[in-house]
Amino acid sequence: MYQNKVTLIGFLGNDAEVRTNDNRSFTTLSLATKSSYKKDGQYISHTEWHRCVIFGKLSEFAGTLKKGAHLQVEGELRSREYETKKVGKKPALKKTIWEIRVNSILKLDRAEKASPEEQETEPQLPLEAAA
Q1: CA atoms within 13 A on the CB side of 25
Q2: At CA 45, angle to CA 43 and CA 49, rounded to 5?
Q3: At 29, is the pLDDT very low, low, confident or very high (cuts 50, 70, 90)?
Q4: CA atoms lying within 13 Å on the CB side of residue 6
Q5: What is the pLDDT of residues 104-120, one digit of tens each?
Q6: Could you please report the per-residue DSSP string of 21-56?
Q7: How far from chain centre, in Å, is Cα 129?
Q8: Is the CB of residue 32 less than 8 Å from the CB of residue 10?
Q9: How far is CA 97 from the centre of its chain?
Q10: Which residues pair with 54 in a beta bridge?
Q11: What kind and span of H or E run contains 19?
């Protein structure tokens, strides 16, 4: 039996990009995750960037996401090969990239706080003392 499942929680580095290739629409996201460790008494922080690709109906929702959105994405880790174009004397190179083929997105952003005027305060009832 096999399992290829990735769960990431992070923030979008850019607005979602909706693209079309071979008459097929899809959305790409750039998701940042962060980790840190202690070295010589100092905390060292590391940010990892993940390319996420979304197809189908979920792609329409993903296309509305904006930079800074806090998300949880689930999907499958995929590799893909492509060849760069020859530029001048530089030869074409074969490259491999890794991306997450997303099948679930959960938006983790908190709702904006209401202003004091918008908040309804319930009247406090006095507590009755037990006899």
Answers
A1: 11
A2: 170
A3: very high
A4: 20
A5: 999 997 766 655 555 45
A6: ETTEEEEEEEEEEEEEEEETTEEEEEEEEEEEEEET
A7: 53
A8: yes
A9: 17
A10: 27, 102
A11: strand 17-21
pTM for the whole thing?
Answer: 0.74
Q: Are 89 and 30 in contact (CB under 8 A)?
A: no
* Amino acid type, 25: S
For the record, the structure tokens of 94 come out as 């074969």
Mapped onto helix, strand or coil, the DSSP state of residue 16 is coil
What string of H, E and C letters represents the secondary structure of 62-112?
HCCCCCCCEEEEEEEEEEEEEECCCECCECCCEEEEEEEEEEEEEECCCCC
Structure tokens at 102: 């997303």
pLDDT digits (tens, 9 = 90+) for 51-72: 999 999 999 999 999 999 999 9
